[in-house]
Amino acid sequence: MSKRIAVVANASKESQEVLSNLTGLLRAAGFDLTQENPEIVVTVGGDGTLLRAMHDYEESLDKVRFVGVHTGHLGFYTDFLASDLTGLVAALQSENAQEAWHYPLLQVEVTCQNGSVTKHYALNESTIRRRAYTLVADVKISDLLFEKFRGDGLSVSTPTGSTAYNKSIGGAVMHPSVAAMQVAEIASLNNIVFRTLGASMIVSQKDRVVLCPEPADDYVLTIDQLEFNYSDISQISYRLDGATIAFANCGHTSFWERVRDSFIGDITD
Ligand code: NAP
Ligand code: MN
């Protein structure tokens, strides 16, 4: 049986060209190209393209392996260079599910005053803020009341999301084999009256982080690039529940190599 592959691309001219070349090569190599129920999803574009594809296939993440081809700059979820499509087709032929790389997803559970519960999964991070006002929330780590946060908001990121928004707000870069989530502050208020930790926290998989925000009708919750408006939240619970995203092993570069190549570049004496 030939492998079922879906190819999704962003709208850029270059990505659309790669999409058409790659589908031709995959067809010629005998792959079954399908958008429904694929085993492998190849994305063409940037990290944002992969994030979108992850949410499009969110219901079948336990059955799908991803491969990212980058047409712009090197990305974190996009290992493959668009110029080596024949190499990619060969790698897709020889890869198998047992060799896939798994990275943790963040489960975010929002409970509202009326008892309704909404569950989301983030590949990078989830942030919470208010549209206009300061966010005030009790922060609990499992059963421990840890602090009363005041500020613009909080971000909770996955290990692979640590190089995204988390890094921009001063969070640490984490290796994805460390199964933990990172809580980072967004412009916290610290003075003689209000006190927060003022540093990002790496919270173990055995704990959950729970936020209990003050009643308000203008909460904005993000899940990667997606935005949700909430009112009357009673609590938001964050944990790593074992859900993962799988990446096909088509010649994955090491995490620290990707961090160096994306943020540092060539090192010359
Ligand atoms: P975007 O505005 O294009 O993303 C901002 C940048 O973050 C892009 O360069 C994107 O790469 C890069 N990126 C995405 N995931 C990354 C990761 N895991 N590690 C390192 N860089 C990463 O929006 P988008 O493409 O839809 O991506 C949504 C993500 O952007 C959010 O989850 C958030 O993490 C990030 N973001 C960051 C900031 C900030 O740093 N101030 C603000 C808003 C959003 P590509 O160009 O390859 O897509
Ligand atoms: Mn993007």
Compact summary:
The protein is 19% helix and 39% strand. With 269 residues, it is of the alpha+beta class.
List keywords for this structure.
eleven-stranded antiparallel sheet, binds manganese (II) ion, seven-stranded mixed sheet, elongated, Tumour Suppressor Smad4, 18 strands, Rossmann fold, alpha+beta, binds NADP nicotinamide-adenine-dinucleotide phosphate
Notes on the protein architecture:
This protein is of the alpha+beta class and about 270 residues long. The chain folds into two domains: about 5-105 and about 245-265, Probable inorganic polyphosphate/atp-NAD kinase, domain 1 (Rossmann fold); about 105-240, Probable inorganic polyphosphate/atp-NAD kinase, domain 2 (Tumour Suppressor Smad4, Sandwich), CATH 2.60.200.30. About 20% of the residues lie in helices and about 40% in strands. The protein has five helices and 18 strands. The strands form two sheets. Strands 7, 8, 9, 10, 11, 12, 13, 14, 15, 16 and 17 form an eleven-stranded antiparallel sheet that branches. Strands 1, 2, 3, 4, 5, 6 and 18 form a seven-stranded mixed sheet that branches. Strand 3 (about 40-45), helix 2 and strand 4 form a beta-alpha-beta unit. It binds NADP nicotinamide-adenine-dinucleotide phosphate and manganese (II) ion. NADP nicotinamide-adenine-dinucleotide phosphate (NAP) binds near residues 51, 125 and 225. NADP nicotinamide-adenine-dinucleotide phosphate binds near residues 46 and 165.
